[in-house]
Amino acid sequence: MLVPRNKQAEALKAAKEAAEKIKVGDPRDEATEMGPLVSKLQFDKVQRLIQAGIDEGATLVTGGVGRPADLNRGWFVRPTVFGDVVNSMTISKEEIFGPVLAIQPYDSIEDAIQQANDTVYGLAAYIAGPVEDAKPVARRLRAGTVNLNYPDWDTSAPFGGYKQSGNGREYADWGIHDFCEVKGIVGYGEA
């Protein structure tokens, strides 16, 4: 999550409060908001990435390595928030696929665009703010989907990533094309 540097403290406070309210536990329990990760392999990956964030100097705001205090088995992860993240850190470069938020400050819109595009991935991006300011930024982001002000899911919009986040698109007409074969016939000139 990229935030203006002068808003980072506010963002960290809000993220900490939100993460600490999440009820982690058995998904069969109605009070549970977040269950376990899918496997030991994914649990170990997320734990390794959380430790990398700590080792590389990100500010651990809440969470951290290990399971939540009341869960001593299973692939449960503590919702974790980091601040003061920079693009060279592993938690900025890797797709974590776990409950980890890495908050990166930026100094200008140009800086934010550069940071956002400085990755081998590009599945989705989210921009919050006035639409007239967000549209020019959205056009410059290298992501398959750019969501402005958190819209509802739209199954008629194409879904798929740029760079190492995938190839092709899903949904509506865009997804149909993946099931079609195109043939080009060239050379109709006389022999």
Could you describe the 3D structure shown?
By secondary structure, the chain is α/β, with parallel strands linked by helices. It has two domains: 1-114, Aldehyde Dehydrogenase, Chain A, domain 2; 120-186, no CATH class. Helix content is 30%, strand content 13%. It contains six helices and seven strands, in the order βααββαββαβαβα. It has helices spanning 8-21, 40-55, 90-93, 109-117, 131-140, 172-176; strands at residues 2-4, 59-62, 80-83, 100-102, 104-106, 124-127, 145-148. The protein has a three-stranded mixed sheet, with helices on both faces. β3 (80-83), α3 (90-93) and β4 form a beta-alpha-beta unit. It is globular. The model has no long low-confidence stretch (mean pLDDT 94).
